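About this split. The held-out portion is used to measure sequence recovery: a designer receives only the structure tokens and must propose an amino acid at every position. Recovery is the fraction of positions where the proposal matches the reference. Here is one held-out target exactly as it appears in the evaluation file.
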């Protein structure tokens, strides 16, 4: 019985050759059919099918055109540039904005000029606290507005370049009146880059805690370059900062201590307030892999450094 089954399932050499020839024949017929269909299609393409596909694509294109913003809508285009595996956002140079009055600022206006929601909220807080923009350059004083951003927005700010002549005359007249009036003690104004804690306590609104905190944070930074950096001190909110701002100044907005990015160690770098562990490790690893930095702008190649971080750390760096 077993022998009969084996004989039934076993092919002879002739049978194997026959099966192989049969399979080749099937493949040849299939290929021939496919080739003939392709030849017929080339000779007489289905014009109706092509026409329907063309109409479908045209319809999609028209729908996209219909959803484009109007000429009065302000928008920004961004190009993504892959350089050394680092993706960098660049604003198109041809962008234009609609004129706006910063004293009537809103989240919609902020979005239209390319500001983030956090940046817009910072401006709104300033206005809600009684702040006001009188001339164009006042808008530049906002911490969230960089020099580059202000240059692109300046032509569209609906404010005068300088104070009107009548306001200037009033100011000069008030100055003359003050010069002839009895001497009045002016409020004490402290330079946060040179004043010690005792001098800072003379400023209205600054007690012992904030006086020591301002001096301590100055030492960690290596010097203040902007008054707005005081808001980085623990407990210093925007309301308190705005109240102290008229009584503080920076005579020399340059750090008294800088960081050499080509020689600094990891342990030393992470002591700076602007360099957390991840950013410190990223900078040191990049320097180890690519060699010394040729210029400070090379730091933009680091994945963790965006425009805002670069603006903050650049004044404190050197080669």
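Reference sequence for scoring:
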């Amino acid at each position: 019985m077993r022998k009969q089954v084996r004989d039934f399932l076993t092919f002879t050499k002739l049978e194997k050759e026959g099966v192989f020839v049969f399979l080749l024949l099937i493949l040849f017929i299939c290929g021939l059919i496919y080739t003939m269909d392709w030849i017929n299609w080339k000779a007489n393409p289905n014009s109706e099918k092509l026409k329907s596909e063309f109409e479908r694509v045209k319809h999609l294109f028209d729908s996209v055109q219909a959803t484009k913003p109007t000429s009065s809508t302000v928008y920004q285009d961004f190009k993504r540039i892959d350089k050394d595996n680092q993706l960098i956002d660049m604003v198109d140079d041809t962008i234009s904005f609609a004129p706006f009055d910063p004293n009537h600022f809103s989240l919609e206006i902020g979005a239209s000029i390319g500001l983030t929601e956090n940046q817009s909220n910072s401006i709104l807080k300033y206005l809600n606290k009684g702040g006001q923009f009188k001339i164009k350059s006042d808008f530049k004083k906002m911490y969230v507005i960089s020099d580059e951003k202000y240059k692109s927005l300046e032509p569209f700010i609906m404010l005068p370049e300088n104070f009107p002549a009548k306001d200037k005359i009033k100011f000069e007249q008030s100055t003359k009146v003050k010069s002839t009036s009895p001497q009045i003690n002016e409020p004490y104004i402290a330079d946060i880059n040179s004043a010690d804690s005792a001098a800072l306590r003379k400023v209205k609104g600054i007690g012992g805690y904030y006086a020591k905190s301002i001096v301590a944070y100055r030492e960690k930074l290596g010097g203040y370059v902007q008054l707005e950096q005081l808001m980085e001190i623990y407990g210093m909110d925007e309301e308190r900062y705005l109240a102290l701002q008229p009584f503080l100044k920076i005579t020399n907005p340059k750090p008294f201590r800088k960081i050499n990015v080509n020689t600094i160690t990891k342990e030393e770098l992470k002591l700076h307030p602007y360099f957390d562990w991840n950013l410190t490790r990223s900078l040191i690893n990049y320097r180890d892999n690519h060699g010394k930095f040729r210029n400070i702008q090379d730091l933009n190649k680091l994945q963790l450094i965006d425009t805002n971080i670069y603006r903050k750390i650049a004044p404190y760096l050197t080669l």
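Annotator remark: The longest strand covers residues 78-83.
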